[in-house]
């Protein structure tokens, strides 16, 4: 079974990626993707807990 990463881990990974690419446009899209992931996860969050 694949362990689901916690939200903080996802944010950390995105932050590292943003720092590597330090591109403002990329940073915006990365946060947008993170927000979408967060919204999508809320429906199944009880399953992960």
As a whole number of angstroms, the C-alpha radius of gyration is: 12 Å
Largest sheet: none
User: What overall geometry do the principal axes of the alpha carbons give?
Assistant: flat
Give the H and E element order. Answer: HHH
**DSSP, total strands:** 0
Label the structural class. mainly alpha
Strand fraction band? under 5%
The whole-number mean of residue pLDDT values reads: 62
Q: Give the distance, in angstroms, between the N- and C-terminal Cα atoms.
A: 15 Å
* Number of continuous helical runs: 3
Q: What are the low-pLDDT stretches, counting only 5+ consecutive residues below 50?
A: none
Helix content: over 70%
In summary, what is this structure?
This protein is mostly helical and 49 residues long.
Q: How are the elements arranged and paired?
A:
Blueprint: H1 7-21, H2 24-42, H3 45-48
Give structural attributes.
49 residues; mainly alpha; 3 helices
Explain how this protein is built.
The chain is mostly helical. It has 3 helices and no strands. Helix 1 (7-21) packs antiparallel against helix 2 (24-42). The protein is flat and about 25 Å long. The two termini are 15 Å apart.
């Amino acid at each position: 079974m694949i362990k689901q990463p916690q939200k903080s881990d996802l944010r950390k990974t995105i932050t590292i990626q943003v720092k590597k690419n330090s591109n403002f446009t990329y940073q915006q899209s990365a946060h947008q993707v993170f927000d979408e992931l967060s919204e999508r996860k809320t429906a199944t969050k009880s399953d992960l807990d």
